[in-house]
Amino acid sequence: MNHFDLRDGRLFCEGVALETIAEEVGTPAYVYSAATLRRHYAVFRDALAAEPALAGAFIAFAVKANSNQAVLAILARLGAGADTVSEGEIRRALAAGIPAERIVFSGVGKSQAELAFALGVGVREINVESEPELLTLSRLAAARGARPDLAIRVNPDIGAGGHAKITTGAGESKFGVSLREAARLYALASADPHLNVRGLACHIGSQITDLSPLAAAYGRLADLTRELRASGYRVDRLDLGGGLGAPYFNSPDPPGPDAFARVAAAAVKGLDVEATFEPGRVIAANAGVLLARVEHIHARPDGRRFLVLDAGMNDLMRPALYESFHDIRPLAPRPGPALAYDVVGPVCETTDTFAKSRLLAPLEAGDLVAFMTAGAYGAVMANEYNSRRLAPEVLVDGARWAVVRPRPTYDDLIARDRLPPWLGA
Ligand SMILES: *Cc1c(COP(=O)(O)O)cnc(C)c1O
Question: Looking at the structure, do residues 239 and 158 belong to the same domain, yes or no?
Fold first, then answer.
């Protein structure tokens, strides 16, 4: 459930008409609903809490889904931890009030500088994805006299997710190590006085709408846990990753957090481990929209009707990157039969196409639309291609709203470059 609703023919976010924000801030602009973020977090937390096998489960919001300070601060106040994949994300989580003890550091290519930084701030856990990373971590920990908690990220050879490009658990993907390799690294880490290996981790993909691959992956993690324990190793944490799909409203709704929690609980039942979850999309996706304005409608003699928006693939990359579907809703739908539009942006690339032959209520130049379900992997992926300024971000909380990242000025954009001295004036 989210807090974007039509009221008297106008689309609202909580108590604020989205038109008001579009007029004051301009478009394109991201808008987030604080109530939706809080609600999604609570539903997820309560679903886990209802399963005795998941007692004490730790929730680390995947910062890469939405790293705005305001979003992180809302989740921090609810007690969320953070799953991070770079020093920048660790710094963002810390700055938003998530303590280091609640930050997990994941990622396939952590640099030495990043690992040293994570050791320095004392993150909760480092999820190690390869032998070279394990050896580097050991060396850095020895040099600092630290003994970091870590987990070994397993690639269970079970891919899942809404698109091949967001599948991470297939054997061929770059993430994690095989079950056999994980057992070997576990032994290596356990024998290392500078490392405190706590358990195993996995994350098999994103926008997962079928729980069976998750059940299978968790089963493999549980089997490996039993095997490691039989060999005398301590395994007291299992990080089950993220990946639960969010409804994008073009297909049946994905299973909810309750069903997901039952699957996770069944896998860890009897193991007496502390489970970690790293939800990103399911918390943030439906808590955000991207507002855009219709520049013009370009009707072709062949009957094609291009709806040219002021938002482009640089603002919302998902359709260009993953062929993703986003529901598109007019802020003030006009009466009349729906028409088929090819919805495109202004960027000079053919992939700057959000939808083809999409049936929408009739639109005119100047009308406002919202890309729904844009709160995750939206603003975080935005870029300035075509020298377009990053879209601002706005947070709505009840009847209040605030710009939580302003749109840069053109001077900001240009002033980041430098002329070399020999070309200077
Ligand atoms: C991206 C990612 C997540 C979050 O995935 P969602 O599909 O957004 O829930 C969790 N853990 C890791 C390691 C990730 O890379």
Answer: yes
